[in-house]
Amino acid sequence: MTDNVYTSDVTVDSASPTQLAESIRLREERIADNIDELVGRVHPKVLATRAANKAKSTVVDEESGSVKPEAIALGVGTVLGVAALIVGFSGRSKRG
Questions:
Q1: What one-character DSSP code corresponds to residue 37?
Q2: Residue 8 DSSP symbol
Q3: Any transmembrane segments, and where (predicted)?
Q4: Which of 21, 32, 40, 43 is in the most buried spot, having the most CB atoms within 10 Å?
Q5: Is residue 43 within 8 Å of 60, Cβ to Cβ?
């Protein structure tokens, strides 16, 4: 028969060997559960899904399902900025 004893309720001075063993077993189970949860959180598939969902929520409005105007503006601005840099550098190399 095992006593269902939690670690915080057991002290070495007042517990029986059976209670201490049960307390250790319960602590090991909790630690194993915590490790399993942490491994699940850092699994590459989970991280990739979380990153994709975050990126999608940045670009797509969840209520309407349409692309956010600020995301379109940022994309267009980035393309124009890169194009301006390319044109600027190509013009400098011809002069120099």
A1: H
A2: G
A3: 71-91
A4: 21
A5: no
Q: How far apart are CA 18 and CA 2, in angstroms?
A: 7
The answer on 37 and 57 residing in a single domain is no
Distances (CA, A) of 58 to 20, 39, 66, 74: 51, 27, 11, 11
pTM of model > 0.90? no
Co-location of 89 and 51 in the same domain = yes
- Whether 75 and 90 share a structural domain: yes
Question: Residue holding tokens 């209670």?
Answer: 19
Average pLDDT, 10 consecutive residues per value, the chain (96 residues): 54 81 92 94 91 86 84 90 90 63
Domain span at residue 90?
44-94
- Residue 66 tokens read as 């349409």
Whole-angstrom distance, CA of residue 91 vs CA of residue 59: 34
Do 31 and 50 lie in one domain? The reply is no
